[in-house]
Design a protein that fits this description.
Blueprint lengths: L1 H12 L11 H30 L2 H23 L6 H31 L4 H11 L7
Helix pairs in contact: 1-2, 2-3, 2-4, 3-4
Membrane topology: Multi-pass membrane protein
Subcellular location: Endoplasmic reticulum membrane; Nucleus membrane
Protein name: Arachidonate 5-lipoxygenase-activating protein
């Protein structure tokens, strides 16, 4: 909602009726940042749900909240100079990687239980709970 509100505000600020603004670099930055966030959101939801369902809910929820905060930082950084959005982008990539690795660990554990009868769920939950606070390190 925040991103859409910013696009609408910038659109009105440019005194036009449509979203096609020629020569307005501020509108282009806001619109592009909104599109970038919108395109990354389905991937985030997929790995968040997989990590929460297949591995551990608490670290996945923590990583999800961190990702939303980082996307906000990316969006606001994109409104300034383009180099200001780079830390938010890189931090977001790291969180997506963490969620993806949690999903892979959950899938591997499922197949280990299915084929060999070995359950490493407690170990995986312990490791992910220990690693998730490391996401706060920039």
């Amino acid at each position: 909602a925040f991103f859409a509100n910013k696009v609408e505000h910038e659109s009105r600020h440019c005194n036009g009726k449509g979203f096609q603004r020629q020569g307005s670099s501020s509108f282009d930055r806001v619109y592009t940042a909104n599109q970038n966030c919108g395109h990354a959101y389905p991937t985030f939801l997929a790995v968040l749900w997989c990590a929460g369902l297949l591995c551990s809910q608490a670290p996945a929820a923590f990583a999800g909240l961190m990702y939303l905060f980082v996307r906000q930082k990316y969006f606001v950084g994109y409104l300034g100079e383009r180099t200001q959005s780079t830390p938010g982008y890189l931090f977001g990539k790291r969180i997506i990687l963490f969620l993806f690795l949690m999903s892979v660990a959950g899938i591997l554990n499922y197949y280990l239980v299915f084929f060999f009868g070995s359950d490493f769920e407690i170990h995986i939950k312990t490791i992910t709970s220990a690693i998730s606070p490391l996401l706060l390190i920039p």
